[in-house]
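Hi,

I'm pasting everything inline rather than attaching a file, because the server keeps stripping attachments. The sequence lines come first, and each chain or strand is labelled.
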Amino acid sequence: MATIDQTRTKGELTSGADILVQSLVNLGVDTIFAYPGGCSMPLHQALTRFGDQIRTILPRHEQGGGFAAQGWARSTGKVGVCMATSGPGATNLVTAIADAKLDSIPMIAITGQVPTAVIGTDAFQETPIVEVCRGITKHHYLVTDVEDLARIVREAYVLATTGRQGPVLIDMPKNVQFAQCVPDYNAPLNLPGYGNMHPPLARPEQINQIAAAIKMAKRPIIYAGGGIISAEASDDLRELVAKTGIPITTTVMGLGAYPSTDPLSLDMLGMHGSVYANYAVDEADLLIALGVRFDDRVTGKVEAFCKHGKIIHVDIDASELNKNKQAHIPVCSDVKFALEELNKIVEAPDDISGWVAQCKKWKKDDPFKYDESYPGILQQHAIRTLWETIHDQDPIIAVGVGQHQMWSAQFYKFDQPRRWLCSSGLGTMGFGLPAAMGAQAAHPGRLVIDIDGDGSFLMNVQELATCACEKLPVKVLLLNNQHLGMVVQWEDRFMHGNRAHTYLGPIDNPEWSGEGDGIGSTDPSERYPNFVQIAKGFGCGAAYVDKKDDFPAALEEMLAYDGPFVLDVAAPYQEHVLPMIPGGMTVKDMIKE
Amino acid sequence: MRHVISALVQNVPGVLAHVAGMLASRGYNIDSLAVGETEDPELSRMTFVVVGDDAVLEQVRKQLEKIVTVVRVDDISAQDFVERDLMLIRIEAPSDRRSEIQQLCQVFRGKVVDVAPEQMVIEISGQEQKIEAFIDLMRPFGIVELVRTGRIAMVRGVNRPRHEAGVRRVEE
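And the predicted assembly:
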């Protein structure tokens, strides 16, 4: 980190609140998503004093602020910052913090806390948020002495952004916000136990081993994940594929790391991954795993995953190596460094043309597909049409969680990293709209779209107010099937179609007990809630569409609208996300129809 | 297999809760845990006894190392080391049985640290098996109360692989 001397508050007695904000400014933070309350008021007062250097965006719920900070971080690669008051404000951030932890997103969460004198007395709006968040942060601080504050903020930044990235919590008692000292913005960090001050680097003999394994492979495949995106190693990955001609599949976190439109791309693998990616991994004799963690949604039954193959596993987090799956060549390294070194010496395998042809044949035989003759608007059709319409504008896409999320991963073709904002590890419904909002704040001129489901959208619908009031023209493509589609799919597949609280309309509607027609009504008056009215109530543009022929024009209307817009698309709920490998099963158990 | 893990941690609030919480949430079983300051007041030493196969132990060690306030982790089981428990035990000791108890106490190099009209408190330290053996011997007298520390351990100055060290490792 550069030495800081452009500091307003240098050498003078300064309040903790001002030190915190100045420290953020010093670290290059120019936007914060912050919702005030009693114990964070001094911080908000300080934010107004730094208004020309840091934009404070007021979300309408702390969770929305947390996901907006993530949308910022995921789309820029820089740390996202959110703030809430003590007690309920802090606990409302918890889900967003846990989400950032599972997806390794760099985030600093700041919470107000009751004054140190009353900590532990069950004071008004007191929660022990550090205790609550211990297991879901990369690290956490309760600041008890204002003298430590400038150092702690720098430590939080270093921890959030280096090694395996993740969320760091800073809990700020109100009296520490008021307390004054002469800050030292360059105080040395006190992190004797932090091993990633310098990232771990693959040793030359490990690189040689990888190159040798690749050279000898007959049926190699690359399995790349979010680590490639965190490490900004997408170009290096492309170079490796170009040099070796090895087919590549990515995880849901890795979408965009390699162009999905490239012939060697086998798209996503795993539970709802492509048939061809899962076949290829199953048959591979060498799996080159880069920045991935062998998640159960990827592997299914882990013993059967890639059972014929030798495994190379490169990851920056030593604890991921041999955690779920034993690797033959485990390499703890910054994946970008490992790829750069590997690309210097790697040679293409002797002859894999037959294998590549086999992969391409699988891809041709079993593409992602849907019923194109369906008279209404299928979710997959809407997503593919959206991609065809806007992909040349290089938009950023956020999603909620559920069927629409998986269909977006399947049918939207990502060619570049940091265009895809998806709560992958935690799978948090309600993620899409606030994440899109955060990305829009980071990229003001850019097209940012939230592809959402009606269940997910409703979980953070209040953020439409933020979009409208903060002039964040996010577009929402709402694939509205009136149900919790993914749970319905599991009910249909595994629970005899018994509807258990998966219909999102009134309890006197026949759909509630599963006695509907299996299609659902497209009559706007029978649908619930009225999203167009809701969006308009928030001051956003909105339209409803249920006819396939009208969809392109409706899409154009949304894209042309000057401001946030919700396009409510009536979609059926009988569609299932396929292919599917049920949890804990193997590629042999894949459901294709 | 039984492993003794020695971790050097920053002496800051919450570090014990963090370590204990991580071990619990990942489902690792700890047989024993002892914590105390070291010669450097900024650092504390935690000694764990964990039972598990090599894969479990590898994960325990790596997950510990990931905690920011954990400075260093060693699985010292592969080395030659000294380990000790400390126990205080209060026993029914009417005057006619005191000498018998005292004799046993001497055999085990224990120390009588408190004598009351009908009871005695004995302090004893050593390896787990020795402590267990002493407890068994005291049972017939009647154990009133018993407290034990967790295991503490230290690698020997001249180190050899454990399997060769059997002859030299004479306890006390």
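Residues 163-172 of chain B have pLDDT under 50 and may be disordered.

If the labels don't parse on your end, tell me and I'll reformat.
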